Model the fold of this input.
Amino acid sequence: MSKLLLHNTRTGRKEPFEPIVPGRAGVYSCGPTVYAPQHLGNLRPYLFADLLRRTLEEEGYEVTHVINVTDVGHLVGDGDDGEDKIEAAAAKSGRSALEIAAMYTEQWLRDRRAINVRDPDVLCRATDHIPEQIELARRLEEKGFTYRIDDGIYFDVSRFPRYAEFAGLDLAAQVDHGRIDEVGGKRNPADFAIWKFAAEGVSRQQEWDSPWGVGFPGWHLECSAMSVKYLGEHFDIHTGGVDHVRVHHTNEIAQTECAMDVHPWVNVWMHNEFIDFQGAKISKSTGGGAVLQDLVDDGLEPLAFRYFLLQAHYRQQQTYTREVVEAAATGYRRLLALAAEVRDAAGEGDAAAQSDYRERFRDAMRDDLNAPKALAVAWEVARGREELAPGDRRALLLEFDRFLGLDLVQADAPGERFESDPRIDGLLAERQQARADKDFATADRIRDELAAEGVEIVDTPEGPRWRRK
Ligand SMILES: [Zn+2]
Done:
């Protein structure tokens, strides 16, 4: 049996995972900034974190997974100048910042669940943790790592000699290429805001009192404050998109290691690559990046998108086009149909016949979560080999699906999924209308009548559908 190997951005190597506390794994993932619809590309970091979580659990670790929701302080352009993304979205739409954040958090959770990404153990919002952030900023100030300028309290990166180490930054070159925004009065171009004052003449919906005056926390601060609160001052794994390495994660490390006197603060840093959307960016429903609902509107199952994501290793860039995602959906349906062949097979099968497949599948996942390789083993099993009886195939596919999350075996085969009949479809529509009108008595009566006929109603992302029991 091989060991669980994870690629660590901090060391640049694939390394055996060594937990801080035996048998446990603390994982923090940077969550979304909830100011706009979460497009398909935003789901990749969470699918990756979900695979990590499932694999750690299968390896016997008790996992605590924490994800934040950024609902304040993330400025347009990720730097220290410009508008707050949420405040800007609120001003544009006429909704409150709170409503904007709640609406897109809800969409994000719904989309995650639709692709079988498990909910985290702790979902923490930045605005619910202002005192923790102020406390961290206060500690940094007390230790002399911060200074005050007109628009806020800044972290002085020259006080942290390891600042450039994590991302291998060449700070001088960054200045030359204008990659760091200039806020007047900063001591070093890479210095970043810990606490920002609302700009003069700008009224903000979200601002708080602090030892430095009314304002709001800098974007990076929340991840340090909340991860430490829920996972401790030294924890195992921090994940995020590869775009976070150079600034967001570099700044998280600087402020946490300085405030807590700890190094390394996080043992393993893991980063997923992007999806390249080429021309397929525009969503019909949102006008922005394509969202999961666009695929559903086009007749694709949400899990076909999960299958698409599993086809690439998380550290590989993946290309998204209509054709590629439709090919993935075809592949996914074929896999489901093969798995459905053994759905009713009895027994646990023969462990000896299964062991080669089991080991190859698990070894692939242990090798830095190599999902495409693991998926290939699942295909071998689904297609069936001479040495595998239906019971073996069923047992293996059920086990593999604990990692893959594709509803293999337990899902109905495609094609036989839902039925259509004008009378029953009409009753379903009537029930929907009754629910929309909050006439629950009528809605329940229709449901009971249909149930008496042996019709089961299933709520799907496309709305309610039905089948005979
Ligand atoms: Zn973060």
Q: What stands out?
A: The two ends are 43 Å apart (CA to CA). The pocket of zinc ion is lined by residues 30, 223, 248 (CB under 6 Å). The chain has 15 helices and 15 strands.
